[in-house]
Amino acid sequence: MSTTAKIPFHHHSLPEHAKELYFHPPYITLAHLFHAPQQWGIASRMLNNYQFQYVVEGAAEYRIEEQTYVTRRGDLIYHSPSQVHEVHTIPGEKYICISILFDFGNSGYPVEQMLGTDRYLGNFAGHDIEKKLTQLITHYHQPGLAHHTQCQALMMNILAELAGIKMEQETKTEGQHKIKTKMVLIRNYIEGHYNENIQHRDLEALSGLSRNYIIIRFRHVFGITPFEYLTRVRIERAKELAIQTDLSIGEIANAVGYADVHTFGRMFKNKMGTSFSQFCSSMVT
């Protein structure tokens, strides 16, 4: 009977780059959903673990060393071992949070390198990260190795996703920030001049960008083209005037930038699915 020799695995046999990239899995020492009583708080303290604190509902004031954060629904913050911190509820506000304590033993996992030194990680209400945090505490309270492994997998997945978000934010170039600023400038111009005969050349002169590039970038930032946004602004303003004033339909059409009441009427019905006169009639009590 032939036998297959087992080759022992030695960490020192790994190439140098692998030694730097791989660490022990996280030890999760606490994961729970906490509903704080009124006037609850934790006095200044230090922990030996990392901590995630995610606001499920309400608000609380979190102080980490010299920085104070007023955290609300969807906010996620973290702090590192040996960082002085305290937390207090806000009078008149409920506070429900997900609290997770974890560490990597002595392996020196580079959490700060991944997440940065800013303890506020962002707002994740309705985000996939919120779902994973909830799943993690569910698995944590179930017995068995499978649930234990799921907890560790979810924690690493959350860390990886947060690191990816941070990396994406950091790699945005100065040019991209300038382009977004110009798109906001165009949006604000439309909001301030919706009742004028705005043309593409006006937006080109304002931004210094070409017509096609403006359309592409504006859609990327706001989800619609500049002139679709102009139509939306005109419709909302026309509805406000119908509700708040006694102006005729022709006067309202003129006030939002249409010299021809019939063109205004066709536009409104096409976008809203009902005529403007029917909308006005529905306002009568």
From TrEMBL:
InterPro entries: AraC-bd (IPR003313), Homeodomain-like_sf (IPR009057), HTH-like (IPR037923), HTH_AraC (IPR018060), RmlC-like_jellyroll (IPR014710). The keyword Transcription applies. Residues 184-282 form the HTH araC/xylS-type domain. GO terms for molecular function: DNA-binding transcription factor activity; sequence-specific DNA binding. It comes from the Bacteria. Keywords: DNA-binding, Transcription, Transcription regulation. The keyword Transport does not apply. PROSITE patterns: HTH_ARAC_FAMILY_2. This is AraC family transcriptional regulator. It comes from Paenibacillus montanisoli.
